[in-house]
Amino acid sequence: MSEPAKRMAAGDKGMPEMGRSLLDGVSLPAAAIFEAPLAHNLAWMQRFAEAHGAHLAPHGKTTMTPALFRRQLEAGAWGITLATAPQCRAAFAGGVQRLLLANQLIGEPNMAIVAELIEAGTEFYCVVDGADNVAALGHYFGARGQTLNVLIELGVTGGRSGCRDADQVEALVAAIGEQPALALVGIEGYEGMIAGGDEVAAVRAYGERLVDTVKSLRASGVLEREAPIVTASGSKWFDLIAEAFDRSELREHYTPVLRPGCYVVHDHRLYAGAMADVKARHPQLEGELKPALEVFAHVQSLPEPGLAIVALGKRDIGHEPDLPLALRLYPLASRPSAAETPRDVGDWRTTHIMDQHVFLTIPRDAEVAVGDVIAFGTSHPCLTFDKWRRLCLVDATLTVRETLATQF
């Protein structure tokens, strides 16, 4: 195969083709992470966790980007949280040594992946919420001669998984005690499914329930860890869980772990709103998270007044719970010299998204041309990352400083 053919066969979308400038050297659409807000977010959340006496194990499913995992660990993270066994394997291959699987480990092929990770020296944890899974794990890891660290998952009524009450917790503790290959080392939970009524009060009560449960288990002597783990927190209510964890007894005798994931790049609506709520609850809090992820695309067609079709679609950007948000226009086609001074187009509205097209309602007299570039923001970043094999890390001048590989 010729060199040009090899290059074309191996190329990923959204990568530099004619230089390092995102606007005129990269095949658009392209997903871009701005390095300054990224660095800010990494430092901000690490400081927040430490100020509350907690460790940070960011949820890696958000990005599945080992280069970002490494940055999180370098910033001080205790470990990385994942959702599946293959995700754990990818994180380990990317250099992560402490992994928390925030789900039950189900199925022997997945158990085999984890067994290999443990044999390779990984410090691994997973959650359990039922006796059947406990028995299966005990049998499998006992046959391998390994010890598996498990956390009891404490759930909420109507939520995803987890023990619903104290009786279920007690029964699960007894089941774990019958499995020599399992080491019960703490409690895990997720508050993100709490909804309706006074959500703030409900999340606070759930945080207290987590703490009370782990303290009770420690007092009973069933936990096989000198400093048992208590962990929760998604990206919306991290401040309320941190409040529950922020007490001298937990700082001294436990390992409190927060697990937000989306903070690393934040967003322009869903978590931007959540951040505003955090600031309202804690007006003394210094600084805030900043959006770092945007997707850039060309205006592809101007078929009628008031409508722009952009070469961007469901295969390039997340569209739930909100459609992509137009942020800035770079008039690359009509006025190349003006590309460095973009125009705010936050009042332009996405009305429809297809596989490869976005329908954008614009002013009938808008100054826009086919070939111009629009930067879009997201609402909830997770389902944008999985559209890309590589993303561009850019500086404030939109120069590509690095390309970041994902491992979905």
What does this structure look like?
- α8 links the parallel β7 (182-189) and β8.
- The strands form two sheets. Strands 1, 10, 11, 12, 13, 14, 15, 16, 17 and 18 form a ten-stranded mixed β-sheet that branches.
- The chain has twelve helices and 18 strands.
- Helices cover 32% and strands 23% of the residues.
- The chain folds into two domains: 3-33 and 289-405, Lyase, Ornithine Decarboxylase, Chain A, domain 1, CATH 2.40.37; 97-260, Alpha-Beta Barrel (TIM Barrel), CATH 3.20.20.10.
- α4 packs parallel to α5 (108-119) and α8 (199-220) packs parallel to α9 (238-245).
State the helical fraction.
25-40%
**Rg, Å, rounded:** 23 Å
Structural class, by secondary structure, is alpha/beta
Shape: elongated
In total, the number of strands is: 18
What are the salient characteristics of this protein?
ten-stranded mixed β-sheet, TIM Barrel, single chain, alpha/beta, Lyase, Ornithine Decarboxylase, Chain A, domain 1, 18 strands, 408 residues
Q: How would you sum up this structure in a few lines?
A:
This protein has 408 residues and is of the alpha/beta class.
Topology, pairings included?
Blueprint: H1 3-10, E1 30-34, H2 35-51, E2 55-56, H3 66-74, E3 80-82, H4 85-93, E4 98-104, H5 108-119, E5 123-128, H6 131-143, E6 148-154, H7 166-177, E7 182-189, H8 199-220, E8 229-232, H9 238-245, H10 248-253, E9 255-258, H11 270-281, E10 293-304, E11 307-310, E12 325-330, E13 343-344, E14 349-353, E15 358-361, E16 373-377, H12 382-385, E17 390-394, E18 400-405
Parallel strand pairs: 1-17, 2-9, 3-4, 4-5, 5-6, 6-7, 7-8, 8-9
Antiparallel strand pairs: 1-10, 10-11, 10-16, 11-15, 12-13, 12-16, 14-15, 17-18
